[in-house]
């Protein structure tokens, strides 16, 4: 038996069955990808909440704001700057995104999404829900930046959608995460989408 491949004879459903005959390097690669995306989502939440000095947002005049009013805890809107000023001219959805800018409901949904997706990906739990929400968030961000500047079809948002699908299909929460434990909880057993 190879030391880099796990072989199992029982074919139960769930994450264990999905990863039974896969090489260890593949499981670790998926886990690393999951953790990297988890850090990306969680960092975006923290930076927009506290204005930690990175690309936090835009001020009321459309200038990049660092350590200032754009911080959510300072009363700034985590969506207003981007949806007001960064959606390019010629975007077919510009009026829709501009109309959502600064809405308290949109701010809360966006921030809870960043936090929930980030924590779930880092922990390796509720991967189906987290990756579906992550893919949806990337799809919305893709729509907001149309037309693309560097490539007519693919940008990092499309790659994010694909990565979310790969993480979900690959049971990425089972290595270096709590996915196996989570799959055995009552919540995950009763609601398959929460696995």
Characterization of the model:
This protein is mostly helical and 195 residues long. It has one domain. Helices cover 55% and strands 2% of the residues. It has nine helices and two strands. A two-stranded antiparallel ribbon has the order 1-2. Helix 2 runs antiparallel to helix 5, helix 5 crosses helix 6 and helix 6 packs antiparallel against helix 7. The longest helix is centred in the first third of the chain and has 27 residues. It is globular. It starts with 14 loop residues before the first helix and ends in a 5-residue tail after the last helix. The N terminus is likely disordered.
List keywords for this structure.
195 residues, mainly alpha, two-stranded antiparallel ribbon, 9 helices, 55% helix, 2% strand, globular
Order of helices and strands: HHEEHHHHHHH
Q: Assign the structural class, choosing from mainly alpha, mainly beta, alpha/beta, alpha+beta, or little secondary structure.
A: mainly alpha
What oligomeric arrangement do these chains adopt? single chain
Number of strands: 2
| Arrangement of strands in the largest sheet | 1-2
Furnish the topology, listing elements before pairings.
Blueprint: H1 15-18, H2 24-50, E1 57-58, E2 64-65, H3 80-86, H4 94-100, H5 104-123, H6 127-144, H7 156-169, H8 179-183, H9 186-190
Antiparallel strand pairs: 1-2
Task: Please outline what is shown here.
By secondary structure, the protein is an all-alpha fold. Helix content is 55%, strand content 2%.
């Amino acid at each position: 038996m190879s030391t880099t491949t796990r072989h199992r004879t029982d074919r139960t459903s769930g994450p264990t069955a999905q990863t039974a005959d896969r090489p260890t390097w593949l499981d670790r690669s998926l886990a690393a990808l999951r953790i990297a995306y988890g850090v990306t989502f969680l960092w975006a939440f923290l930076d927009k909440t506290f204005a930690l000095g990175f690309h936090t947002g835009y001020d009321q005049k459309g200038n990049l704001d660092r350590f200032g009013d754009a911080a959510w805890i300072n009363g700034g809107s985590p969506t207003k700057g981007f949806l007001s000023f960064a959606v390019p001219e010629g975007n077919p959805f510009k009026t829709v995104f501009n109309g959502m800018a600064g809405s308290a409901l949109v701010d809360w949904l966006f921030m809870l999404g960043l936090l929930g997706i980030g924590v779930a990906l880092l922990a390796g739990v509720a991967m189906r829900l987290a990756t579906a929400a992550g893919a949806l968030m990337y799809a919305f961000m893709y729509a907001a930046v149309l037309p693309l500047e560097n490539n007519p079809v693919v940008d990092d948002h499309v790659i994010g959608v694909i990565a979310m699908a790969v993480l979900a299909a690959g049971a990425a929460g089972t290595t270096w995460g709590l996915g196996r434990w989570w799959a055995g909880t009552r919540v995950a057993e009763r609601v398959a989408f929460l696995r």
